[in-house]
Write a structure and sequence with these properties.
With 261 residues, the chain is mostly beta strands. The chain has three helices and 14 strands.
Length: 261
């Protein structure tokens, strides 16, 4: 079983080719875990360029399954006065895999600011229920601690598929950092798993908006919300938010998911 920090160290060391083959503990069925492949795109970019401003937004497309040897390529699309945008592609022996666009931007002074109010945190990670035991479910889930905070139980048939989950890497060396956070944030179950019995599902895209320059938390725990109000014709659109242990909202996301029942 390869820890995330070790995997990331080996991946960075493979620069400039950025090639890696993952162990079974990072698999999600027949493909690599999507949060991992998205994180590797980000890792290749920030490892290749010095003094990048903070990540502001990312658009990820999961084009196809990834298996075997994975290779990441990237290029600068535009560097302006305030923002710089990169394109990154992860391909593998299985063909085209995960493609993305990442925009980094400097901080600018503003006459007025607005922020989400601090989130009133539900039950603490130490007091909640383990969502799925580490020895069950998809292989990649063994890399994360996941504690149900609010919302329905999985496969409960609830009419309100809206849940929050305390999540963190089990690897203590992966508790901070944007790359580590990207890998973590795709770990909660899709909200619709509280609604219907599924044979399988597959994320089609993932749009990420970062709300903090350097997101941090306590003991690696982040509160992740996943919610959907739309399940139709074999697809679902779900919203996601992320808070740290202080109740600061640090990330907004949306995903489109293909459903197989």
């Amino acid at each position: 079983m390869t820890a995330f920090s070790s995997l990331l160290t080996d991946f960075r060391a493979s620069a400039p080719n950025y090639e890696i083959e993952i162990d079974e503990n990072w698999k999600q069925g027949r493909t690599a875990y999507g949060g991992l492949t998205a994180a590797l795109l980000h890792a290749a970019i920030v490892n290749s360029y010095d003094n990048l401003p903070p990540l502001r937004t990312a658009q990820i497309n999961f084009v196809g399954p990834t298996d075997g040897r994975m290779r990441v390529t990237h290029k600068t699309l535009r560097r302006g006065k305030n923002n710089v945008t990169f394109e990154a592609r992860l391909d593998s022996d299985a063909g085209p895999g995960t493609y993305g666009y990442f925009t980094f931007g400097v901080s600018r002074k503003m006459a007025r600011k607005m922020d989400y109010p601090k989130h009133e945190l539900p039950v603490s990670p130490q007091m909640g229920e383990e969502l799925i035991p580490h020895n069950t479910g998809r292989n990649f889930l063994a890399n994360f601690d996941r504690i149900r905070a609010t919302g329905p139980a999985l496969l409960s048939g609830s009419d309100n598929p809206d849940l929050t989950v305390w999540s963190r890497h089990i690897d203590p060396h992966a508790h901070q950092g944007v790359t580590e956070l990207i890998a973590l944030t795709d770990a909660p179950p899709a909200a619709l798993t509280a609604l219907i019995q599924l044979k399988a599902l597959s994320s089609m895209n993932w749009n990420i908006n970062m709300l903090r320059d350097n997101p941090t938390t306590t003991d690696g725990w982040f509160l992740l919300r996943t919610s959907t109000k739309h399940v139709w014709n074999g697809y679902s659109s779900q919203e996601m938010q992320v808070w740290n242990r202080s109740g600061e909202r640090i990330m907004d996301c949306i995903q489109h998911i293909a459903i197989f029942t």
